[in-house]
Structure formats: structure tokens, C-alpha cells
Design brief:
Shape: elongated
CATH class of the largest domain: Mainly Beta
Strand order of the largest sheet: 3-4-5-6
Radius of gyration: 37 Å
Number of domains: 3
Number of helices: 2
Structural class: mainly beta
CATH topology of the largest domain: Thrombin, subunit H
CATH architecture of the largest domain: Beta Barrel
Length: 202
């Protein structure tokens, strides 16, 4: 009889374990609710929390082949650390300080050696706005109160194509289709200029 009871207990145990493995879900709670279908492990509580492994920094960094996603609480830094992209990453709190040694992959120093002045053209003493459309650059100059049209088809050799005096203090220019739109800050005007032939002296 005792052997029969032991056998039934073992069968029940193995069926329970097999059932848990088949569903691949575990629910830990006080109300006997089932795990959420989207969760492998569903922990429910209103008076307790989840306590993950706690260790020193030396112990954390000594973990052999830590998996991406591994999470621990570091008692040396009093912060959580998680593993991602083959390195440990700290989840900082308000008291954390950033040290240069924390930067595993510091940003490289920018290389601006590719930036050079290709060419230059004097267009006035107070150029205030420029827009490029096609082969032409349109510049307004507040000192001469001009709209200057510059041929930039060869950026290494810009050439002044035409000039139009448009007001007392042009401040900005925009181009759409065959027209340039210039704002005059002194007269509060918007001036519309036909640039269908930008190379023509206007």
C-alpha cells in the first residue's frame, strides 16, 4: 500500500512538472491565478517585491560568459547593471556620478579635415540671406540693398550674373520657380522678382 501511494505521488509530481514544461509558463501569486499568456514568468504581489541577485562589482565582472539581458544589483555602486552588446551597462540613479572611466566607447574626435574653402566671391559688406536654386545663388545684401544673382554652376569659380537694387534693407530671400521673394525689413514689404532669366542684368 505504501509503495502504491509513493508511486501515485511520483506520477502526480512528474505530471505536474511535465505540464509546467509544456505550458512553458510559471505563475507565482497568492490568488492562484494563471500566468498571463504573454509571460514566461508572471509574479503577482501587493506586499512584496522581486529581489534579484546582489553582488559586488568584482563578483559581477567575474561572471563567466554573462548572457545579454543578465541583470544584477551591484552593492559596490548601489545600482542595477545589465549586460548588452558584450559589456556591462549601469542603470544610474540620481546619486550616480559619471566618470571618464565609465565611457566604454567614448565618441571619437570629429575630423573636419575634409572641410575647405573651395572659392570666394565678394558680394557686399552685410550679406544677410542666401538661397541656391539650380545653377544660381541669390544673395541679398543690406549694405548695398541689392539682390545679387551669382552663377554657381562651377562652385570653384562663382561669377556675379546680375544685380537689382530692391529697397532700403532687404533681410531675407526665398526662391520658387521663376520668382524670388525678398523681405524688406525697413519698408515691411515682400518684393516679388521675376528671375526667369537670372543671367540677364536686371
Amino acid at each position: 500500500m505504501q509503495n502504491l501511494i509513493k508511486t501515485l505521488v511520483l506520477i502526480t509530481f512528474f505530471l505536474t512538472v511535465a505540464g509546467a514544461k509544456l505550458t512553458a509558463q510559471i505563475s507565482i501569486n497568492n490568488d492562484n491565478s494563471t500566468a498571463d499568456p504573454s509571460a514566461m514568468l508572471d509574479i503577482k504581489a501587493t506586499d512584496k517585491g522581486l529581489l534579484i541577485p546582489r553582488m559586488t562589482s568584482a563578483q559581477r565582472t567575474a561572471i563567466s560568459n554573462p548572457a545579454d539581458g543578465l541583470l544584477v544589483y551591484d552593492t559596490s555602486t548601489n545600482t542595477y547593471w545589465y549586460r548588452a552588446n558584450m559589456q556591462w551597462n549601469e542603470i544610474r540613479n540620481s546619486s550616480s556620478t559619471v566618470n571618464p572611466s565609465d565611457l566604454v566607447n567614448p565618441l571619437p574626435t570629429p575630423d573636419f579635415s575634409c572641410l575647405n574653402v573651395t572659392s570666394s566671391l565678394s558680394i557686399g559688406s552685410i550679406p544677410s540671406s542666401v538661397v541656391v536654386s539650380g545653377n544660381y545663388a541669390y544673395v541679398v545684401d543690406r549694405s548695398s540693398t541689392d539682390l545679387k544673382v551669382i552663377d554657381v554652376s562651377n562652385p570653384t569659380l562663382p561669377q556675379l550674373s546680375s544685380t537689382l537694387n530692391i529697397g532700403s534693407e532687404p533681410s531675407s530671400v526665398a526662391v520658387s520657380g521663376n520668382y524670388a521673394y525678398v523681405v524688406d525689413r525697413d519698408t515691411d514689404d515682400l518684393k516679388v522678382i521675376d528671375i526667369s532669366n537670372p543671367a540677364m542684368q536686371v
